[in-house]
Amino acid sequence: MSAFKEQSFVDRRQSAIAARQSQLEKFKAQQQDPAAQQRAAERRAIAEARAERERAREAARRERLAREAAEREAEKIRKAAEEAERLAAIEAARPKSRMELAARALAAAATGQVRTGSSAR
Questions:
Q1: Confidence at 113, pLDDT banded by 50, 70, 90
Q2: What's the rounded Cα separation, in Å, for the pair 34 and 42?
Q3: Is 115 in contact with 108 (CB distance < 8 Å)?
Q4: Which of 6, 14, 68, 105 has the fewest CB atoms in 10 Å of its CB?
Q5: CB 114 within 8 A of CB 108
Q6: Secondary structure (DSSP) of the chain
Q7: pTM over 0.70
Q8: Predicted local distance difference test score (pLDDT) of residue 121
Q9: Whole-Å CA distances, 9 to 12, 38, 51, 82
Q10: Domain positions in the chain
Q11: CA separation (Å) from 114 to 69, 103, 107?
Q12: Distance between CA 52 and CA 61 in Å, rounded?
């Protein structure tokens, strides 16, 4: 009364071989299909276009980073030059030595512009 018939090992093996053969034939048929080949070509073209866009973005990013680095370097140089000018102006305004102070005092005294330590307000 058993409705289930158990398969033997050989039957199971033959079923597995037939299933694999069927899968292989299906795969080969898909490879020969012109529509499948066209879809694969379209996918390759899309992937190539995507890779090209990525390369262009990367090149633009590298260019932008190089430009920003050059701008930072130029700004650093400009600030250093401004600082050097500022320090040179301060140094030029400051007397160099006591001899120079004495010479300026003598020159001021000779022209009548005597300066005193306290200013009259």
A1: low
A2: 12
A3: yes
A4: 6
A5: yes
A6: -----PPPHHHHHHHHHHHHHHHHHHHHHHHH-HHHHHHHHHHHHHHHHHHHHHHHHHHHHHHHHHHHHHHHHHHHHHHHHHHHHHHHHHHHHS--SHHHHHHHHHHHHHHT----SS---
A7: no
A8: 43
A9: 5, 43, 51, 92
A10: 13-111
A11: 55, 13, 9
A12: 14
Helix (H, G, I), strand (E, B) or coil at 40: helix
* Lowest model confidence (mean pLDDT) among 75-79, 95-99, 104-108: 95-99
Residue 27 has which token pair?
């795969």
For residues 60-86, average pLDDT: 96
Return d(Cα 117, Cα 95) in angstroms, integer: 17
HSE value, Cβ hemisphere, 13 Å, CA-based, for 78:
6
Write the DSSP assignment of 98-116 as a string of letters. Answer: HHHHHHHHHHHHHHT----
Which letter does DSSP use for residue 66 in this model?
A: H
CA atoms of 49 and 45, how far apart (whole Å): 6
What SS3 class is residue 19?
helix
